[in-house]
Amino acid sequence: MSPHPEQCDTLIVPPIAAPANPELSARLQAALDNKTKPRGSLGRLEGLALRLGLIQGRLLPALEQPQILVFAADHGLAAQGVSAYPSTVTAQMVHNFLRGGAAINVFARQHGLALQVVDAGVDADFAPAAGLLDRKIRRGTRNALHQPAMTATECRQALARGMELLDTLPGNLLVVGEMGIGNTSAASLLLARLGRVPLAECTGRGTGLDDAALARKHRVLEQVLARHEPARTPLAALAALGGLEIAMMAGALIRAASQRRILLMDGFIAGVALLVAEQLAPGTRQYAIFGHRSAEPGHRHLLRLLDAESLLELDLRLGEGSGAVLAYPLLQSACALLGEMASFADAGIRPEA
After folding, report:
1. How far apart are CA 26 and CA 50, in angstroms?
2. What's the first-to-final CA gap in the chain, in angstroms?
3. Which among 77, 149, 157, 253 counts the fewest CB atoms within 10 Å?
4. Are strands 173-179 and 132-134 parallel, antiparallel or unpaired?
């Protein structure tokens, strides 16, 4: 990419430097091969260690002040019955996050990770609270069945605010999670349009739809895609199909990659935000480690499009960043492998003898 920021419909996208470094890669591989173990015997953990070293540009990668941002927003399309839950649950879950009662809170506390909730566009007002970042663009997107979910200006604002969040955030690892009733529908639409995947293969049960409700969801999404047929570029598709939290996550991921942070990815919806980010700022995905493979059917296609392999497969479909945080100890182990495990020389072992 150009060394100067590129412009995308007036959105300034920072350049993403490739983490590839053949000399460092060779040194990292040599360090791994000389640990007190048969070569390659720690399997994919060794590849993970090498990847972390390349992302950070050093022989001894370390995880410093990891951050979790959970982006919350509502979706006008939820009025079409595409979710098993009403839109009011989004705001209720934000309160649950702030009280520390959600799954992501539990896992974040377990590993000592900092967590903040970002109001990207919830259809409710919140009093100021510790751990809540007010970046609201509007109170939910519009109903994409009838009109674009966002204006072009709102879409760019959401992306820009996601980028700006990272400018004051410490640490070298980012987890983005999400909460928004109806957001699996927005993610399915974006994957179908931007990934050119058949919509039926992108559409899952989300919050737990039964067969009849799943069929209704698919019919609605087909109509939405047809209505917004001209929206083909990443920004146009994002604005037409939604949602605010997906756009803000995409902005955060772009900025984090430009800062050479590790992107520890969650499941389907966060993954779609990464797909959007990659198409807006090529190279973003090179900083991503994929925590798990979601039970949502579209996530398999997403991983294929991003040429990625997940660390875990636990049939999760919760979101919130939960699957990413469950994989976090594997990154800790990969760093410890390089930083703490003895080499043959350290241990006085001569494997060639």
Report:
1. 9
2. 49
3. 157
4. unpaired
Rounded to the nearest 5°, which phi and psi values hold at 265?
-90, 145
pLDDT tens digits, 171-208: 999 999 999 999 999 999 999 999 999 999 999 888 78
Map residue 153 onto helix, strand or coil: helix
Cis omega before residue 243 (within 30°)?
Answer: yes
Query: Residue 289: beta bridge partners?
Result: 264
pTM: 0.95
pLDDT number for residue 207: 79
Whether the CA torsion 222, 227, 229, 234 is positive or negative: it is negative
Amino acid identity of residue 307, one-letter, is D
Ranges of the chain whose pLDDT falls below 70: 1-10, 353
Separation of alpha carbons 267 and 292, rounded Å? 6
6 is catalytic: no
Per-residue confidence (pLDDT) for residue 7, from 0 to 100: 41
Residue 217 burial (CB < 10 Å; 0-12/13-18/19+)?
buried
Predicted confidence (pLDDT) per residue in 205-237, tens digit = 887 889 998 899 999 999 999 999 999 999 999
Question: Which residues are within 8 A (CB) of 191 and not within 5 positions of it... i.e. 6 or more apart?
Answer: 197, 202, 272, 275, 298, 301, 302
Which of 46, 245, 320, 340 is catalytic? The answer is 320
